[in-house]
Design goal:
six-stranded mixed sheet, alpha+beta
């Protein structure tokens, strides 16, 4: 028995691969979006076995130890040491039947058996989080008591400002991105920039144990590199969260705590007449976008053009009003 994965000859499809399982007389054929559910469950669409190409462009051909249907799922065990156990699950979503290809890892990531809290972080009614516009697939914080603004950050992907200063940032990393930036050397420079802030952290959307299952780089190299970075920059925490949702929740809570700390620290320093060294070294908060400046100016009764650059005094007035 063999598992066959071929390229879908249909150029307009969003499911670029064909999967053929040794099930039944003619086999089970599915269109799917990937060759293995490594980071997330893959959506599949059943198709007649007769639609399998006569001369397929095979991507993978793997022996199968077991392929058994058990109720609404097909248990699949491949004849290889890694990435060998998975399930084809037949279920319903929004009233229609759907099929997903999942592994044990992606199943636990999808359902980590935890519920994130809905309470406000640090009692803040609505936390304003600055999101760097270069961040791809950014957190929306839709389930948290927060709103986001898009502004260029000097470092990190998510930041928090207090009284016109950037007091904390969080750099988001997926596990592949963490490994590549660590081995390539760019992560060292990123932590050096983050260390200049009063508070900073790196959040990883995976478990720490996942670094020991790497097959493209020696796990010991990754573990030693992370340990060295933490010793060199101890004020920049590297935190592993199990899933993207938990990493988003942790980022929200961390930035809220940083906002509360900076506000209370500044108030305490003002009472005793001593400037806080950490906050005094914090860089100026990133400037608003032109669209934000234009909208703010109009709320203040300032006449601004619909297009083009704005006068420097408008930015100065905005800074004065927000400091």
């Amino acid at each position: 028995m063999e598992l066959l994965i071929a390229r879908n000859p249909d150029p307009d499809t969003r499911l670029p691969y064909l999967l053929r399982l040794p099930l039944g007389d003619d086999g089970l054929v599915l269109r799917t979006s990937g060759t293995w559910p490594r980071t997330k469950a893959l959506y599949c669409h059943p198709m007649p076995s007769g639609d399998w190409p006569a001369d397929p462009e095979l991507v993978e051909r793997v022996g199968v130890r077991s392929c058994v249907r058990r109720g609404a799922a097909i248990d699949l065990v491949l004849d290889r040491s890694r990435e060998n156990r998975s399930q084809i699950v037949f279920t319903t979503a929004r009233g229609r039947e759907v099929v997903f290809w999942q592994s044990a890892r992606t199943r636990k990531q999808a359902r980590p058996d935890v519920r994130t809290p809905t309470a406000r972080a640090a009692g803040i009614t609505e936390l304003e989080i600055v999101v760097d516009p270069r961040e791809r697939y950014a957190y929306r914080f839709a389930h948290q008591q927060a709103r986001t603004v898009s502004r260029a950050l000097p470092c990190g992907d998510y930041g928090i400002t207090v009284d016109g200063r950037l007091v904390a940032c969080v750099e988001r990393k997926s596990l592949p991105d963490l490994v590549s930036s660590l081995t390539g050397g760019t992560l060292r420079y990123a932590l050096g920039e983050l260390a200049a802030l009063p508070r900073a952290a790196v959040v990883v959307e995976d478990r720490y144990s996942a670094i020991f299952s790497q097959d493209r780089v020696r796990p010991a190299v990754v573990a030693d590199g992370l340990a060295e970075l933490q010793i060199r920059w101890p004020n920049v925490a590297i935190v592993f969260c199990e899933t993207r949702a938990l990493a988003e929740e942790w980022t929200y809570r961390y930035l809220a705590a940083a906002h509360t700390w900076a506000s209370s620290e500044q108030a305490a320093a003002a009472r005793v007449g001593i400037m806080s060294g950490e906050l005094d070294a914090a860089p100026t908060a990133p400037d608003p976008t032109t669209a934000e400046l234009r909208a703010w100016a109009r709320t203040q009764g300032i006449t601004v053009p619909d297009r083009g650059r704005l006068r420097p005094d408008i930015l100065h007035a905005w800074r004065t009003a927000h400091t």
